[in-house]
């Protein structure tokens, strides 16, 4: 849901920082972030789609924007598609979690973290082969400024690649499973035997103070949902060439939002393992169906997410 029209860029950045600092605590568990075979496979596939179907080359020095806990970059590094990573984010909480994940995966000697806003990158001109990100562009207030920064810090001939950006259509579509999930949640909790989360059910207690603040901030952090044509124009106006835009995930996202809306009403950690396994595997199966059947056939704007790449002129 886009931020209120009267929120200033400074407010949006401030809320993003606070919201994601809070979210960092249980971000990987909430979004089912995987650093094993599934995560590696998903991220390679996303990068491949962003590059227009080409098998990704190895990028020696890469800059990630809004790196979060490292889902995209650390999974790509595990496959040796990135040599050295500079992971940036406006949230120090997220970067701390990313550093912990890098350590656990044995990647920390090739990873540097830097707390910064995407619109003001503290790096020299031409210092990266790849500038990339996942699910971040829609949080950035002045995207024209950010894309010009991406161009500046790329070497001539360098690449940008972004995935997981909500399309306007997808954003509208997601409201249906979200509403439906919330409506049938009491019945679902009874069937699977999951107790209502504090604040979600008839016997609601008190929400944890941090969570309550997180929910209040949620409405402000999402600034954009994209029309593919507008996004293409923005990238071209920043000075990029060879722009590719594609769509990904339709069935998987409708299903995923429905699952998340159900699970959000249950006490965290009390959703039975059998359900969590079912949810995870059914989501992955639909993702595969999207890849095999829908993504090659339907226009980008119909999908929930947009993927893109472009080049800085050599
Ligand atoms: C939805 S999360 C995605 C995190 C990670 N890329 C992933 O896919 O799991 C968006 C991330 O963008 C960061 N972010 C939001 N606004 C930003 C900005 N203006 N500059 C840099 N990072 C920002 C947030 O702190 C958060 O970590």
Summarize the structure.
This protein is an alpha/beta fold and 314 residues long. Helix content is 47%, strand content 17%. The chain has a domain at 9-166 and 206-248 and 299-311: Vaccinia Virus protein VP39 (Rossmann fold, 3-Layer(aba) Sandwich).
Give a verbal description of the structure.
The protein is an alpha/beta fold and 314 residues long. It has a domain at 9-166 and 206-248 and 299-311: 3-Layer(aba) Sandwich (Rossmann fold), CATH 3.40.50. 47% of the residues lie in helices and 17% in strands. The chain has 11 helices and 7 strands. The chain has helices at 9-23, 27-30, 37-50, 71-78, 92-104, 143-153, 168-192, 209-221, 228-238, 251-263, 273-294, and strands at residues 59-64, 82-89, 111-115, 128-134, 154-166, 241-248, 305-311. A 7-stranded mixed beta sheet has the order 3-2-1-4-5-7-6, sandwiched between helices. S-adenosylmethionine (SAM) binds at residues 13, 16, 20, 65-68, 71-72, 89-91, 94, 117-118, 133-136, 139-140.
Question: Could you name the key traits of this structure?
Answer:
Rossmann fold; 11 helices; 7 strands; binds S-adenosylmethionine; globular; 314 residues; alpha/beta
What is the averaged pLDDT score?
91
Estimated structural class: alpha/beta
Query: How many beta-strand elements?
Result: 7
Low-confidence stretches: 201-207
Q: Which cofactor or ligand species appear?
A: S-adenosylmethionine
Say what the CATH topology of one domain is. Answer: Rossmann fold
Distance between the termini: 38 Å
């Amino acid at each position: 849901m886009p931020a209120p029209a009267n929120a200033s860029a400074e407010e949006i950045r401030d809320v993003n920082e606070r919201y994601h600092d809070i979210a960092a605590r249980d971000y990987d568990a909430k979004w089912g972030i995987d650093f094993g075979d599934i995560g590696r496979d998903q991220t390679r596939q996303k990068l491949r789609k962003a590059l227009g179907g080409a098998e990704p080359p190895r990028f020696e020095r890469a800059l990630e924007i809004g790196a979060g806990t490292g889902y995209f970059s650390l999974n790509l590094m595990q496959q040796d598609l990135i040599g050295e990573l500079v992971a940036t984010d406006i949230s120090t909480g997220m970067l701390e979690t990313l550093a912990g994940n890098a350590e656990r995966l044995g990647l920390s000697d090739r990873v540097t973290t830097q707390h910064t806003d995407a619109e003001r990158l503290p790096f020299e001109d031409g210092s990266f082969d790849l500038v990339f990100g996942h699910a971040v562009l829609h949080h950035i207030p002045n995207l024209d400024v950010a894309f010009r920064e991406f161009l500046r810090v790329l070497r001539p001939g360098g690449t940008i690649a972004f995935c997981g950006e909500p399309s306007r259509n997808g954003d509208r579509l997601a409201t249906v499973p979200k509403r439906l999930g919330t409506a049938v949640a009491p019945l679902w909790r009874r069937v699977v035997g999951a107790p209502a989360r504090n604040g979600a059910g008839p016997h609601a207690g008190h929400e944890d103070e941090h969570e309550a603040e997180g929910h209040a901030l949620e409405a402000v952090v999402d600034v954009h949902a994209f029309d593919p044509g507008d996004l293409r124009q923005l990238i071209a106006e920043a000075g990029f060439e060879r722009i590719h835009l594609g769509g990904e995930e339709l069935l998987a996202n409708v299903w995923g939002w429905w699952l998340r809306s159900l699970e959000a009403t249950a006490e965290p950690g009390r959703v039975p393992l059998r359900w969590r396994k079912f949810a995870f595997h059914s989501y992955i199966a639909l993702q595969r169906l999207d890849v095999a059947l829908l993504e090659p056939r339907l226009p980008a704007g119909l999908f929930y997410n947009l993927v893109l790449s472009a080049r800085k002129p050599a």
